[in-house]
Amino acid sequence: xxxxxxxxxxxxxxxxxxxxxxxxxxxxxxxxxxxxxxxxxxxxxxxxxxxxxxxxxxxxxxxxxxxxxxxxxxxxxxxxxxxxxxxxxxxxxxxxxxxxxxxxxxxxxxxxxxxxxxxxxxxxx
Length: 125
Fold this sequence. Notes:
The protein has strands at 2-6, 9-12, 17-24, 32-38, 45-50, 57-59, 67-72, 77-82, 91-98, 114-115, 119-124. By secondary structure, the chain is mostly beta strands. Strand 7 and strand 8 (77-82) form a beta hairpin.
């Protein structure tokens, strides 16, 4: 399984970015894909996930309605639309996937089997 993340960049506070994560080597409709982020000196933290097998999306509390995760199974791709970005959203964003993700595990990065390479998001004030 390979995951390819893209879409990061530099944006001013209040702006928007859309991240993409494309998977290969997996039955994508059954595959859960999440986004994590890691800022310098901080732990990797959960942002959002869209579970496979017709499941739904879940978000970290800090998202506060600003981000939307979606998936296009025909394109093997999950998107993270980020709006109203804040400087504290600055981090490397990683997509991660699992074919066996249970609901109680969605926020634990150790339980995702596959990881993309990360894409830098920088929000200037």
